[in-house]
UniProtKB/TrEMBL annotation:
UniProt keyword NAD present: no
Residue stretches of biased makeup (Basic and acidic residues): 30-97
Protein name: Reverse transcriptase
InterPro entries: DNA/RNA_pol_sf, Integrase_cat-core, Integrase_H2C2, Retrovirus_Pol_polyprotein, Rev_trsase/Diguanyl_cyclase, RNaseH-like_sf, RNaseH_sf, RT_dom
Keyword Nuclease in record: yes
Listed SUPFAM superfamilies: DNA/RNA polymerases, Ribonuclease H-like
Region called Disordered, residue ranges: 29-97
Alphabetized GO MF terms: endonuclease activity; hydrolase activity; nucleic acid binding; RNA-directed DNA polymerase activity
Keywords from the named record: Endonuclease, Hydrolase, Nuclease, Nucleotidyltransferase, RNA-directed DNA polymerase, Transferase
GO BP, sorted A to Z: DNA integration
Limits of the Integrase catalytic domain: 402-561
């Protein structure tokens, strides 16, 4: 305090001024200390919050780690159990198979013996004269058989009319016949014996003769034991009644490998190669180039012709051991053959771009090799179909609508089949979860036909009420005609997920996982009693708070905490039982409803935060992939877990876009809807490479392939889409869906890549035909790389082209706010000789007037609006500019030309002609309506016109269907106009100005909102006086300047709000004057109370300060009416003043000529003058006196 007194005395202040100075300095010191203390408190709170969040995240990480470890251990145990079970089943199956084989073997032998007996009897009847010889043969075989062990293998010499030689035989324990000869090579038929056949002299039967009649494929498949085989050693082939494993393996034909058909098999000899090289125009420059070394990176390159063949000789220290590598230059007709051998062939291996390119360059080369190989590999049919699913990025996560009413929407699913079934026969569980409260229900079922599921749902609905919407998958129980009829009778809207996309129904899927995991733990000792644990499990789930809402389902459902095990345990330990307050029924219901509403609102906010957080982490690796009707796509259905068998199916054609990320695909005879995560763009390979005279570049979209980016049909530079468009936070779910459907109909209009309109062309009319130009400005070396990158991007987008124009404007590199560089062209010399375009420009006041009564807004920003307008052909050379890398000229309208804004304004006026509820300011469009239905209709008409004009809008800068929007530096909401928070923050955080330039900058920024600040001119007079000519550049900061500076900041920090002018209502103008300035306030009544529309003030000049009181008051009226003449001309309005003599302006006669001139001017306005008390004229009075 003493310091302030001393400082005031030093400044020469006395008396009241000294006291005011000390008080003001004391207040400022107290305010600074309070702000410092507030900042310290906030910093402590933020630190504590960060510590709490870190602890929570650490606990969550530990919990997730523990869960993963539990799952791994459980999976290991289950795997061991399954392995043991499989091994036991295999051993049991082997035992059963052996038993069956033995039985079949014995049965088949008996059957064949019987058949052989019948055939032998027939032979004996035909050859009765040979009976003695047969009896001798039988006796001999019985004698030999008796010497072999029973049921054992052995080798013996046999001598029969049917077969003679050494055989391997099997002896049966209970033989039916002495000898059985099977289907062996050289054996005679039963009806054709040869009794003269002796060992050493017999001739076997012809090989082409049929084997024994009882040999057939069924026997060969049933009898597969080596013990039943016999063969002759002196025969080249042995055929038995049984096909052995070795023989089956030997006779099995090898399946030929499928090799991709390749054109590389075409014969190309040396002469043909030379002929094609000479005819290829792309190789001519290399043949005509003199043989000399050229540096390429760290290596050297030269071209040579050896034996009429053109080679490229490349030498590098790390290639080919440092030795020269001679590569054949491949002509165009043979390039595809080389790529097919290197990539598609069986020895190619379908490797990636880099490895295929390296393989080719080991022996061949041609210009553009890497680009050709890249296109070839990316269009490979096999590679596209076998790419792992994880290599195709997912699309960004879409936000689910937030449901704020319990059981408005519920998610339903089925779990099962559960093994083992319950003791009562339950095999499935029907689950249901509410979207608003996360309240779950679960019902065990014995069967899952539609009738059973419908009855279970009705049983649940009897407790919780009938929901408006249900969300299910495409299970037959949910989409059957019976279930649809149930939904119709109960007036339920049925929503379904797309195939193989359970993420859409993630709420119930997550609950299913929790239910199965918990149920497994509870019924571990009694697995068949699992159905009796469900109710206890549901109580446990409903009692604990949900991570997403922050409340337990019980709290959101009933508005109170239920009495559970923890409360009971606490009561038993402490004997402390809460006694609730006794309330009447009305009070109880009222407070319960209020508490439920507050709880649901907090839960909704927590859900929004959780949703935003989840989307942020999910979208880190997501890519906004879009398909258009007519695109060819591949589909990956998770129907097989074998990595060798799982592959993409297709290609199929996209028929329509049915949602943000859902597409209708023609899969043959019918069409199905699939999510974008199951689709991948199919790149078709052209049938053959041909030489062309020109090429057409088509825009392409990016996709993942082989660790690189894959070109798709679309736009190469597009980075934003409909997913980046913001929607109003207070829209209902149905309104959000309608907006999503609307954006789906105009997907191509939402792009950060500028279009090209035909509405208007930018024309440059000059007053002189003499070309003008300037030398290029020096560009810093560190900025040249970014400049070159920007120029390359503009070339690719078709905004500029290389030029040889005599005109030349220099380029300037300016630093942007984010630290990056911006390329600007200095067209000042061209602008000096350009004929001015008188196209009228819109004013902010006129635009705000048209917004009166609007409640719903949509802000739309054109994507680089200037670049969407082409430059007239003959004027393109006039836009040329010079860079260190060359001269370019603009094909699209550039920034910086004097008439660029007028051309854009003319194009917008043509496009929006006759359209209501749309205003524009340069390339910003604002749609404003009173109702949502009217708003949606206006949006569709606007985007239809944008489509016709081929204009695109920037998705990230668009917001649709909101009641609060920032437009032209102001905040608009429900008929009110406020300050833009961003600019207010700049003013509040601006340091105290110390020089003239800094004062002008501060006044310029604050002056943009002078209509919000009463008596702005008078308040800032001490600051504006310091900028006069003759004042020192260094500001002498005193109490008056400090007071003005702090007053402006204080008034802006109060968030002043103005009403939008309504021309249908009567205006009220209040004016007042003081010794320092005059002020005016334009008002209108809303709800019977006057609200300000705009403020205006003016600092009095030296002569005006000498006016009398009446003259000052009259000057305030005249100046105020002139200031707001746009609103007051031609309408009736009320003039309110606290200077009563002025009420007689229209009737009194004044001797003062100045006042008489003012009265004559006021005769042009239809106004009613009213006198009000000075205490009521607080606004205008403050405007004029605040700085006194």
């Amino acid at each position: 305090m003493a310091e302030f007194w001393g400082k005031g005395i030093e400044l020469g202040l006395k008396g009241k001024q000294l006291t005011e100075f000390v008080e003001s300095q004391t207040r400022l010191l107290a305010q600074r200390e309070e702000r410092q203390a507030q900042r310290e408190r906030e910093e402590k709170e933020r630190q504590a919050q960060r510590e709490r969040e870190e602890k929570e995240r650490q606990a969550q990480r530990e919990e997730r780690q523990a869960q993963r470890e539990d799952k791994e251990r459980q999976a290991q145990r289950e795997e061991k159990e399954r392995q043991a079970h499989r091994e036991e089943r295999e051993r049991e199956a082997q035992r059963e198979e052996r038993q069956i084989e033995l039985k079949r073997f014995e049965l088949q032998i008996k059957m064949e013996m019987k058949r052989l007996e019948l055939q032998t009897e027939m032979v004996c009847v035909q050859n009765q004269h040979e009976a003695p010889r047969q009896r001798d043969y039988q006796q001999q075989m019985l004698h030999r058989a008796s010497k072999l062990p029973a049921f054992s293998d052995g080798k013996d010499q046999i001598d029969t009319p049917y077969f003679t030689g050494e055989v391997e035989a099997v002896c049966l324990k209970e033989p039916l016949y002495d000898l059985l000869i099977g289907n062996i090579g050289g054996a005679r038929r039963p009806d054709d014996p040869d009794f003269e056949w002796r060992m050493g002299s017999a001739q076997p039967a012809a090989e082409e003769e049929d084997p024994l009649p009882f040999a057939n494929e069924d026997i060969n498949e049933l009898l597969r034991d080596d013990r039943a085989t016999v063969h002759r050693r002196d025969q080249p082939q042995v055929v038995s009644a049984v096909t052995t494993r070795a023989q089956a393996k030997k006779d099995k034909t090898t399946t030929p490998l499928r090799v991709t058909n390749s054109s590389a098999t075409a014969v190309v000899d040396r002469d043909r190669l030379i002929q094609l090289q000479e005819a290829d125009l792309t190789l001519t420059k290399y043949r005509s180039r003199p043989v000399k070394e050229m540096t390429k990176g760290e290596g050297t390159v030269q071209f040579e012709v050896k034996a009429k063949i053109l080679y490229r000789v490349f030498q590098h220290a790390r290639v080919n051991g440092g030795k020269p590598l001679r590569q054949v230059l491949v002509p165009q007709p043979l390039r595809r053959q080389v790529m097919e051998v290197a990539h598609d062939s069986i020895m190619g291996g379908h490797l990636g771009v880099k490895k295929t390119s390296d393989r080719i360059q080991a022996a061949f080369y041609w210009p553009g090799l890497h680009a050709d190989v890249t296109r070839f590999c990316r269009s490979c049919n096999i590679c596209q179909k076998t790419i792992p699913r994880g290599r195709v990025p997912k699309v960004p996560l879409q936000k689910m609508p937030l449901i704020d009413r319990p059981f408005k929407r519920v998610a339903i699913d089925l779990i099962g089949e559960i093994k083992p079934p319950s003791e009562a026969g339950h095999r499935w569980v029907l689950t249901l979860v509410d979207y608003a409260t996360r309240y779950p229900e679960a019902v065990p079922l014995k069967k899952i036909d539609t009738e059973t599921v419908a009855e279970a749902l009705v049983d649940i609905f009897s407790r919780i009420g009938v929901p408006e919407e249900i969300l299910t998958d495409l299970g037959t129980q949910f989409v059957s005609e019976c279930m649809e009829e149930v939904n119709r009778l109960l007036s339920i809207r049925h929503l379904t997920t797309t195939p193989y996309h359970p993420m859409c129904n993630g709420l119930v899927e997550k609950f299913n996982a929790t239910l199965k995991s918990t149920l497994k733990k509870l019924c571990s000792e009694q697995p068949r009693q699992w159905h009796r644990y469900i109710n206890a499990l549901l109580f446990a789930y409903r009692e604990v708070p949900q991570e997403s809402t922050g409340f337990s389902p019980f709290e959101l459902m009933y508005g109170r905490t239920v009495r559970g095990p923890m409360q009971i345990l606490k009561e038993l330990w402490t004997k402390d039982v809460d006694t609730p307050e006794v309330k009447n029924s009305y009070q109880y219901v009222f407070e319960l409803r209020e508490k439920l509403e507050e709880t649901l609102e907090i839960a909704r906010e927590n859900l929004r935060k959780s949703q935003d957080s989840g989307k942020h982490y999910y979208d880190r690796k997501a890519v906004n992939r879009k398909f258009t009707p007519g695109n060819k796509v591949l589909i990956l259905l998770p129907t097989d877990h074998n990595k060798l068998l799982m592959q993409w199916k297709g290609p199929y054609e996209v028929e329509a876009v049915v949602g943000i990320n859902d597409y209708k695909v023609n899969v043959g005879k019918k069409s199905k809807i699939y999510h974008a995560n199951l689709l991948k763009l199919y790149v078709e390979r052209p049938p053959e490479a041909v030489q062309v005279a020109a090429s057409v570049e088509e825009p392409a979209e990016l996709d993942e392939f082989d660790g690189e980016e894959l070109l798709e049909l679309g736009d190469l530079h597009k980075k934003e889409g409909v997913d980046d468009v913001k929607l109003g936070p207070d829209l209902t779910e149905d309104q959000q869906k309608e907006l999503h459907d609307f954006m789906g109909d105009f997907t191509h209009r939402f792009s950060d890549v500028p279009g090209s309109t035909s509405l208007v062309e930018h024309e440059v009319h000059l007053t002189s035909d003499v070309p003008v130009g300037s030398k290029p400005y020096p560009i810093p070396f560190q900025a040249r790389e970014s400049l070159k990158k920007d120029i390359d991007n503009m070339l690719k987008m078709g905004v500029i082209r290389e030029s040889s124009s005599p005109y030349s404007s220099p380029v300037v590199v300016v630093k942007k706010k984010d630290g990056t560089n911006r390329v600007c062209i200095d067209f000042r010399k061209v602008n000096k000789i350009t004929v001015f375009d008188p196209e009228p420009m819109p004013t902010a006041a006129d635009l705000f007037r048209r917004l009166t009564g609007s409640k719903i807004f949509s802000k739309i920003d054109l994507s680089k609006g200037y670049w969407q307008i082409p430059v007239r052909g003959e004027d393109i050379p006039k836009t040329a500019f010079a860079t260190p890398d060359g001269t370019y000229e603009c094909l699209r309208m550039p920034f910086g030309m004097v008439n660029s804004g007028a051309t854009l304004k003319r194009g917008m006026r043509k496009m929006l002609k006759g359209m209501k509820n749309v205003v524009y300011y340069w390339d910003d469009l604002l749609v404003h309506t009173e109702t949502f239905a009217e708003h949606l209709e206006t949006l569709r008409e606007l985007f239809s016109r944008l489509t016709k004009a081929n204009l695109t809008v920037r998705p990230s800068k668009c917001i649709l269907g909101t009641d609060n929007v920032d437009f032209i530096g102001h905040s608009l909401k429900e008929g009110q106009k406020g300050l833009l928070l961003e600019n207010v923050t700049k003013i509040l955080n601006a340091p105290r100005p110390e020089t003239k330039k800094q004062v002008r900058s501060f006044l310029g920024l604050a002056g943009y909102y002078r209509e919000f600040i009463p008596n702005f001119a008078a308040i800032t007079a001490p600051l504006s006086d310091m900028t006069r000519k003759g004042c020192p550049n260094r500001i002498l900061w005193g109490p008056a300047q400090e007071k003005a500076y702090q007053t402006v900041r204080d008034l802006m920090s109060r968030d002043p709000v103005l009403r939008l002018p309504d021309t249908a209502k009567e205006f009220i103008l209040r004016t007042d004057a003081s010794d320092e300035g005059i002020g005016a306030m334009l008002m209108q009544e809303h709800g019977g109370k006057p609200f300000p529309v705009s403020y205006a003030s003016k600092k009095l000049s030296g002569a005006e300060k000498n006016y009398s009181t009446m003259e000052k008051e009259c000057l305030a009226i005249v100046w105020g009416i002139k200031k707001f003449e746009l609103y007051l001309q031609g309408v009736k309005f009320v003039l309110q003043t606290d200077h009563k003599p002025l009420t007689y302006l229209n009737s009194a006669k004044f001797v003062n000529n100045r006042i008489m001139r003012w009265v004559m001017y006021l005769q042009n306005f239809d106004m009613r003058v009213e006198s009000i008390k000075g205490s009521d004229n607080v606004g205008a009075d403050f405007l004029s006196r605040v700085c006194e």
